[in-house]
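=== RUN LOG ===
request id: a7f3
mode: sequence -> structure
chains: 1
length: 64
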Amino acid sequence: MGKIKVTWIKSAIGYERSQRRTLKTLGFHRLHQSVVRDDSAPVRGMINKVRHLVKVEEESGQSE
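=== RESULT ===
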């Protein structure tokens, strides 16, 4: 299973509470933070919900 790097690039102020909770569920604590997640359907669904607030990149190297 591949990995994806997700970076929070835009503030969630003014957006729905569920979108702010989705950012927390993805593991974000502060703006401009990056997290690496497994590329799975549930994670892709969460990213799709907040796609206007984050940037997604394919993780090329093995980080384990």
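=== NOTES ===
The two ends are 13 Å apart (CA to CA).
The mean pLDDT is 94.
=== END ===
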